[in-house]
Amino acid sequence: MIEYLGNISKYLGLPINSSSHGHMIDNMIGWVHWLMILLFIGWGVYLIITVIKFNSKNNPKANYNGVQSHYSQYAEYGVIIFEAFLLIGLSIPLYSQLKTSLPSDNDVHHIRVIAQQFAWNIHYPGDDGKFGDTDISLVDEESNPIGLVRDGNGSDDIVTINQMHLPVNKQVLIHLSSKDVIHSFGIPEMRIKQDAVPGMTIPFFFTPTMTTDDFIDKIKGSAREGKGYEIACAQLCGNSHYRMRGFLTVESEDEFNGWLEEEAEYLEEGDDDDW
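Above: the chain sequence. Below: its structure as tokens.
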């Protein structure tokens, strides 16, 4: 019943859901709209009744006795119960699932995302599964935007700019930070949006459930036809905020591993990372 009524969200123009938790967010959005519809109808009916019942023709003299019935209180109690349901029944469980605990390291892909004006730096650990250290003195916007130390654990790390690759149906744990100002990492189809705050590393996770190719096929005939997933900055971050856009490729695990191998070959050949 709850899922059925929450399905109104599919008529609200939301982007296609491409994550495992997205249906929960869509369901909550649907219930919020049901509340708004009920309030709109209720207040509209109340206004019409008030205008008709208490106009000057029907009430030539003012009545100082006030409202005698308790219908308004009952209506207020109904709104409180509905809002409590939204908070306790939907919002808190969803928040608890996504924010209060992180997935274990088993079968989770760890990725660092370092935001800056006006790009997304994507950092993958190498075969050892460990991120290399960073040093601010090594930062070079052309060749090393995150100041990665290429010795030790960082020798096989992969860094790209505005290009993120993920395997489908695999849980991803993002470690989000910022080099300069507050940014906001958002992928609408994945139902994720998280602020990137300077001086903090903020983890969040999701599981993509639709490959980029399947997504492009599904949006044929729409205004976004031919365009894949985009990573948007949802926080005004400067005069070139409009061009802070990245691209997400969701693919099969074999294709993802193949892409990692290609990037690793560039490192072995001594070439710069494929920005």
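The chain has five helices and ten strands.
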